[in-house]
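#lab-general

N.A. 3:47 PM
ok so I finally got the sequence cleaned up, no stray characters, all 466 residues accounted for. can someone with queue access submit it? mine expired

B.Y. 3:52 PM
send it over

N.A. 3:53 PM
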Amino acid sequence: MKFNQFGIVGLGVMGKNLAINFVNKGVKLAVFNRQVPGREVNLAKNFESENPGAEGFDDFAAFTASLEKPRKILMMVNAGKPVDDVISRLIPYLEPGDILMDGGNSHFSDTKRRVEYLEEQKLIFLGIGISGGQEGARIGPSTMPGGPLNGYKEVSKYIDLISSKDKNNLPCSTYVGPDGAGHFIKTVHNGIEYAEMQIIAELYYLMRFLLLYSPEKISYVFQKWQQDGDGSYLLEISSKILLKKEGNELLLDKILDVAEQKETGGWSVKAALDLGSPFSTIANAVQTRMLSMLKFKREKAAEIYKNVGSKAAPESLNENELKSALISARLINHIIGFNMMKDASDKYGWNLNLGEIARIWTGGCIIKSPLMEKISEELSSSPELLFHPEVVGILEQNHSNLSKAVSASILHNFPVPVLSAAVSFFYNIISGNCSANMIQAQRDYFGAHTYKRIDKSDAEYFHTDW
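B.Y. 4:20 PM
back already:
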């Protein structure tokens, strides 16, 4: 009997497209999908008939028996209880040294728990962050494996094979670190993505309703920025969205202005709070989606406060200033995300290679861009993006236009929460002195929390009877 080399459990959108990727790369693949009458019927067998080189199963015993040892099984099921359910159903059919992988958007603490539990069962568990959406999954995603290093070494050739390639034809995949590190950086990736999407949305909104550009002109501007090397995958797809018509009308104008979200954005903000890591652009992006959900309240408030609504001001900004704002805000957002990963690496002892993480995000993933390629190079020579000479030069050249864009927006009653957060973070982080001494004085006044003095030892604390 010739055994299958690799197994996938779950043929949803991502699982099915990853399975196609494996088959197209010549991997002898076993796929499993449950049977749910009326919803999920014969998905695995249908996949087998459509993809020579794959074998479909709806029985775990037969599925696991078909795999070469040590078994390598990638679970593509919903995060949370479904992952634990699949693990519990698979364990009776596994043997010491077999490898289970979770390719969904699981919380990193769940992954850490599963690594430890399966180690007790003499099994290996890996948490693999996967980015790229359904297209990336099919032709090459960015992959972020974390967990026991010995397990990674067993599966790396398969994960590298199906991953996207960078400009040097290296796989956009790397061993991230132990326990939940892979899923943690995928969570941060998604946080950076949230803010990047919001930055583009805010710039679109300003051009459309403050500067009164047509959708076609905004699309042209976005395409030009893309051609100039200051774009991204997200900017590219946004330029295409602005040209999509339904009949003679722009499809975008028919879409309800309520932005939904999955849990990863909120998880990234909670993780930042736990680490004490500033996360303002990403936190504001998450909060802005929450505000968008209050559609009824927003409409009611718009009617009540109609005299303070947004006002068009076509002469207030030009597209070069907005491009400069985009460059600054995106770079600041990436600085914030990479700072958080460094904080996590220090706290959890993961020894994250930030330059290598940036490299695997240059292809396949949703936040791929020329900027990410620069960041990968810069982090290879400096562990702190904010202090890198090229970053300093970019921000010195562009920050004033970010300030101008935010100022013009506020003056004309246009909300720009993430652009505002970016410029506030930047001016805070470059302030040698800030307002925190007043906070400490207030805390000491009402709660005797004490404070340190600039003219005394750093080890000494003081209290004043105010």
